[in-house]
Amino acid sequence: MANTTYSLAKAVALTDYQPAFCSAEQYQDWNWGQLVTKKTTNRATEQVFSYTGLPVARQTGQLQDVYYASMAELAATTWTISKFTLATLFSYELMEDNQHLPDLMKQAGSAMGESHAFARDVANAALYNRAFNSSYTMYDGVELCGSHTMHDGTAYSNKLTAASISYDSLWLMLNHFETDLISHSGIYLRDKPKFLIYHPSKEKQVRAILESTLEPGTADNDKNTIKSYGLTPVPCRHLTTSTNWFVAGSRWPSSVWFFTSDSVKRATKDDFDRMGMKIRTHQRFAVGAKEFIYIVGNEGA
Fold it and tell me: Strand, coil or helix: what is 24?
């Protein structure tokens, strides 16, 4: 690139060789993308109002009074957009003398994309890191996994007694979706357990449970009945406590929303004093859960 002017080097780098930043799916180091519903917004905050539904219908005679029930809104869930910024500086001499300018600029763009994706990975993991922390409450004033009071007054808990991942403790999690799910209006719900979220240090226990033909850890010939559920293992290295684990149902992704306010944007500027070119990027997003029904958590042991 000798004898190339600053402006030409800059123009070539920006228009031809610096690609758009790779999408989150390409750089995710854990598969949170299958656990969320992605949306876009042009506002700094978003609010979502859930509703309680209607209670169980009552049998009445033909001439008896009709019973009315109101559709009531729950408290609002608010997502506040956060901004993440990254910048780097290239010297003009490096751009002039480097014969591999296309590769250099491509790598710079990819590195920025990786960094932004990492921020999204950590933000999505925070939802589970805070699941048992009473400092991070949902609209009902209770953390994601805890003892909740439904709108009709029914007691509901999606936090099980602390236990490490085992065949029997996982069965208790699966039974939660068959016997404990209930709506805010008191109607029984059912969901199919689909995702097993855990720290990678528990990979051996998880794989033994999900992939064994017979019941693992026993000397008998009982079939591994958990295997038929087809649970999707979702290891997450960003879990700050290796003992925490969760089972989420098939409806869980509709309860977790990822708002992208702006796509990852890039801007450049000359740095005259240092004979360089600045490249900066930013992204704005928010992630959170609007409902706690379709997930059950265990702090582990």
Answer: helix
